[in-house]
Amino acid sequence: MAGIANVNTNVDSPRADPSTKNPNRPAPKPSTISVNTGTTVVITFCNLSPIPSLIHGYCQPCELGYTAGMASSNRIPPAVDAKSAELLERAYSLGDEQDTRGLYRDWAETYDKTMLDGLGYLSPRLVSDLLAAGTSDLTGRVLDVGAGTGLAGQELNARGFTCVDAIDYSAEMLAVAGKRKVYNRLIEADLSKPLDIPDQTYAAAICTGTFTHGHVGPSCLAELFRIIRRGGLFAFSINSGVWIDAGFDRELKRLEDNGTIHLITREADNLFATSSTKDCWLNLYERR
Ligand SMILES: C[S@@+](CC[C@H](N)C(=O)[O-])C[C@H]1O[C@@H](n2cnc3c(N)ncnc32)[C@H](O)[C@@H]1O
Q1: Which atom of ligand 1 is least distant from the CA of 216?
Q2: More confident residue, 275 or 14
Q3: Cα(265)–Cα(270) distance, rounded to whole angstroms?
Q4: Closest listed residue to residue 261, CA positions, set 235, 223, 230
Q5: What do you get for the CA distance between the two ends of the chain, in Å?
Q6: What is the reported pLDDT for 48?
Q7: Are 77 and 272 in contact (CB under 8 A)?
Q8: Model confidence pTM above 0.70
């Protein structure tokens, strides 16, 4: 993985047409670019994908055209209804644990409708496909991390996984997940703390939508890999807005460098059917 360079530049027109190609523009390098147009908009390009994906704001391969201000508006894709957009904005703006627990207490009963009907949420399906593609024995124990209402559990069940546990600290979200009858066990626990689960308990793990703005940071990764058995897989999505900012890139590199994990595949994809850019990373790692 190459390093990330920080480049500060001023943009003359804050409303540059994103579709306009400038032949004089230098080829883009993996970089973080701060664009000062009164307010600062951080536009981050990532070098980990064949597609130079934009992390905040607009990106086309080899183009730096954008509209200043898209960085914030891009966090929330167009939703079918205002309520769905408002709930997602609230989810992305969480301040502390009490905020997070409060949000999911209020949201549990309508979460699926917001995410699936309102936003066309894709991650549970895409990440389940990723895990299923790498799994030959569907009977091994799988942990759904930050399982919420169980959308990923449902997808795994549809792909033939027979023994999936759910872990989440929201009792209200887990109550909805339990009604699906796709989980072996529901575990109420905080992912930011040490887990009361023995080493190498799970054959695999999945996490969708939980490594995102205002939610769970990268410090839990070592603990999650601890409970996955050697040779087991962990498939997860990471919102590209927190990939670098929250330090997921650095923590995964640290775990890879110290021999704990091995990257099998990483690709940029859409979190939502309504996303206008590839706004998440789909990762598949093997526990060493
Ligand atoms: C956006 S939802 C994702 C749910 C599900 N994986 C999905 O894709 O629909 C995030 C979930 O993470 C849970 N969560 C957030 N912080 C957590 C923490 N520190 N420990 C355990 N669960 C947490 C929330 O309760 C919520 O259910």
Answers
A1: 16
A2: 275
A3: 16
A4: 230
A5: 19
A6: 35
A7: yes
A8: yes
* pLDDT per position as a tens digit, 216-239: 999 999 999 999 999 999 999 999
- The model's pLDDT over 177-207, given as tens digits with 9 standing for 90+, comes to 999 999 999 999 999 999 999 999 999 999 9
Q: How is the chain split into domains, by residue range?
A: 123-287
Q: What confidence score (pLDDT) does residue 91 get?
A: 85
Which atom of ligand 1 is the closest one to the Cα of 220?
Answer: 19
Ligand 1, atom 12, residue with closest C-alpha: 146
Of the candidates 122, 159, 166, the residue with the CA atom closest to the CA atom of residue 269: 122
Q: Name the CATH superfamily housing domain 123-287.
A: Vaccinia Virus protein VP39 (3.40.50.150)
| Minimum CA distance residue for ligand 1 atom 1 | 209
Residues in the chain: 288
The residue type found at 19 is: S
Q: Which two tokens stand for residue 128?
A: 């389940």
- Best of 94, 164, 210 for a ligand 1 pocket test (most atoms within 8 Å of beta carbon): 210
The span from the CA of 271 to the CA of 75, in Å, is: 10
Minimum-distance ligand 1 atom for the alpha carbon of 210? 10
Specify the residue with its C-alpha closest to ligand 1, atom 3: 209
Closest ligand 1 atom, residue 145 Cα? 6
* Residue to substitute in 169, 239, 280 for testing ligand 1 pocket (most ligand atoms within 8 angstroms of CB): 169
With a Cβ cut-off of 6 Å, ligand 1 is lined by 100, 104, 123-124, 146-148, 151-152, 168-170, 173, 190-192, 208-210, 215-216
Q: Residues with Cβ < 8 Å from 147, sequence gap 6 or more?
A: 153, 166, 167, 168, 173, 174, 177, 183
